[in-house]
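Researcher: Let's continue the batch. This sequence belongs to N-acetyldiaminopimelate deacetylase, and it's 380 residues. Same format as the previous ones, please.
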Amino acid sequence: MTPEQLTRLTALRHDLHRAPEISGEEAQTAAKIAQIMRDLGADQVLTGIGGHGVAAIFDSTQPGPTVAIRCELDALPIPEETGAPYASETPGKGHLCGHDGHMTMVVAVAESLAAKRPATGRAVMIFQPAEETGKGAPAFRADPQFAQITPDMVFSMHNLPGLALGHVELCRSAANCASRGMRVVLTGKTSHAAAPQDGQSPAAVMADLMPKLATLGQGGPLNADFALTTLTHAQLGEPTFGVAPGHGELWVTLRTVTDTRMAALVAEAETLVHTSAQAAGLQVTITYDDIFEACTNSLEATQHLHQTCQSLDVPVQLTDTPQKFSEDFGQFAKSAQSAMFWLGSGEAHPQLHNPDYDFPDALIPVGAAIFETTLRRILG
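Model: Same format as before. Here are the structure tokens for N-acetyldiaminopimelate deacetylase:
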């Protein structure tokens, strides 16, 4: 990558950073990316995929596989506190996960493909919406336009604070944990605070459930038996001294390495909640949000990435330990060989989703080179 190109791409990253859009609201970001792809002369630009998704196709016109590179469009509903001159101009929202940098890397690959098409098959640049909620990838794949892409192989990456800058970590199989948000709503009957015996308060059941739900999943080694339950929110009644509560909520995140273990953990948690609520005469409703299935790297796709890193002299570590956090990229593995790699943001870099996080611009040429070299390795 030339200094001029890096300067231009860094400016693009900063422009994207200034205008973050959260999951499901990525209209302007998607429009900007789609126009860039058209200006580059992509053979086909698909828009509105699974929401605001964009796909740019670079076709060799020769027989061969379709290889896709996937990145994310969305930001987070978290205020930014970086103090950067290009900081978010949208109150309460920020690119605090690095998706602005991920998009920029994929734009860099598209620039290379515009200058020189692949020798065989097709290269597809995927800009996916709503990764942060887990809704984007399923919607993207379910969209009828996805049939025009039908990739044989898909690659993705995520920057990783705590890993040395520019180093790569690559999982041999399990890459990301499955997770889901469990919302438990307990309904009883309110009463005057002077006569609590005339109501049905969820307080005792909530106090009993919180430690019991925590003991269902206590973490441990990241293997097939791993399960972690994290209480993230609790609400009892209204903030008043005059009413004994009749309503309570518990929000719990369930996390496992495998989808099979997740199904078992869900069953255990639901049985515990229903048993406790029934014994107390409370009504209970359980719903789920932010549902992420486990993400697993395929052997063939992982080998391609490993060989690429070695050829570029990028420090790479193969591991059998997945990341605890979740990714909806695993959805693409349902119809294609796929693999995601972790690109180090620096050992002391602020963590993802923190108000002071900012994507390191030094990673733009590293990630772009890994993507492009992998594409050329397969398609020529």
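Researcher: Any comment?
Model: The chain has two domains: 3-176+294-379, 178-292.
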